[in-house]
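Hi R.,

Here's the chain you asked about this morning:
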Amino acid sequence: MSKLDASNSSTVPGAASPLVLPPLPYAENALEPIITAKTMSFHYGKHHKAYVDNLNKLIAGTEYAALSLEKIITSTAGKPEKAAIFNNAAQNWNHTFYWKSMSPKGGGEPPAALKSKIEAAFGSVDACKKELASMAVSQFGSGWAWLVLEGDKLKVVKTANADMPMSMGLKPLLVIDVWEHAYYLDYQNRRADYVNIVLDKLINWEFALQNASE
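And the predicted structure, written out as tokens:
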């Protein structure tokens, strides 16, 4: 998770800087026409930014202020009294991971090393995509559909709201966001259309391979 951490390095010994909104890995209009710049502006510039801003307010003056994003998540997971901190921290992490799970040059065939793992687990790349789509579309309400490693085997899981695979001991490789703000401006209630076109045209198999190889 560390490579996705928002920066909170200290400029003064013993003091922590606020967590920052990580930059997008591409321009806001780079995923058009599949995901429009308008959607990206709201999703990244408003929703994702709000998680970062809310988290900074929640942890100011607490023992979490000096921790990395990863440490905040692991320190608050499963603690109902810390749910607000966990939710905002996890949503920050989930969104950063989601941006990297897509690419303007995405879609197509996975790299050979990943493709062999996919075929071993699902039978084919198409079967893997169908299971990811099924998980994403069937998630009731807000949440995420993930391609993960459980041990050395690939599987697909879904999580609700801010939950994430690490809480289940799974290693995330890529994710599709199915909160309504991810797609509603472009696709209205047609979640399946959004999910399928992301899988066909934007999904970043190279990022998944990178995560599987670490």
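Strands lie at 143-150, 153-160, 171-177.

Let me know if you need anything else.
M.
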